[in-house]
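TICKET: design request
STATUS: open
ATTACHED STRUCTURE:
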C-alpha cells in the first residue's frame, strides 16, 4: 500500500489558530502511528504541506522520516517550477495566490511580539526582510 497525504498541515494550522492544538496534535500522533509506523501493509508514504516538519513534534514517533524542502536538491527536477519554465513566461507571476488561508498571519499580527509586527510592516512597505532560516 502507498499512502499519500496532501496538505497534512492545514488542519494543524486551523487547530493552532482556533485554540485546539493539543487535542489535534494528540490525535494526529496516534493517527500517524497507526497509518505510518505500525501499518503492516504500508510500503511507502508521502506527506505534503507548507509547514516545516520538526522531527521532535508529532513526527517524533516515525521511523525513516526524510524531510525534503523547496531548497532540497532531491526531486528538484520533479516538483515545483524549473528556472526555464519561469523564464519562458517572460514575467513574474503569482503562482500560488489565493491558494491558502491567511488566518495564521492574522493570529501572528494580533498576538505576535513587537519584532514580528515590525517585520510585517517592513514587508508591506515593500522592503526586504533578511532573517535566518532553520534548516
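STATUS: resolved
RESOLUTION: sequence designed for all positions
ATTACHED SEQUENCE:
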Amino acid at each position: 500500500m502507498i499512502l499519500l497525504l496532501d496538505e497534512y498541515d492545514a488542519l494543524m494550522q486551523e487547530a493552532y489558530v482556533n485554540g485546539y492544538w493539543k487535542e489535534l496534535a494528540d490525535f494526529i500522533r496516534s493517527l500517524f502511528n497507526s497509518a505510518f509506523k505500525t501499518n503492516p501493509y504500508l510500503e511507502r508514504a508521502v506527506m505534503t504541506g507548507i509547514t516545516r516538519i520538526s522531527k521532535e513534534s508529532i513526527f517524533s514517533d516515525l521511523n525513516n522520516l526524510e524531510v525534503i524542502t523547496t531548497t532540497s536538491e532531491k526531486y528538484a527536477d520533479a516538483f515545483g517550477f524549473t528556472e526555464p519554465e519561469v523564464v519562458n513566461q517572460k514575467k513574474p507571476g503569482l503562482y500560488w495566490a489565493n491558494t491558502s488561508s491567511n488566518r495564521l498571519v492574522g493570529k501572528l499580527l494580533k498576538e505576535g511580539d513587537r519584532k514580528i509586527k515590525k517585520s510585517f510592516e517592513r514587508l508591506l512597505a515593500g522592503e526586504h526582510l533578511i532573517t535566518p532560516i532553520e534548516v
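CLOSING REMARK: The mean pLDDT is 80. The two ends are 31 Å apart (CA to CA).
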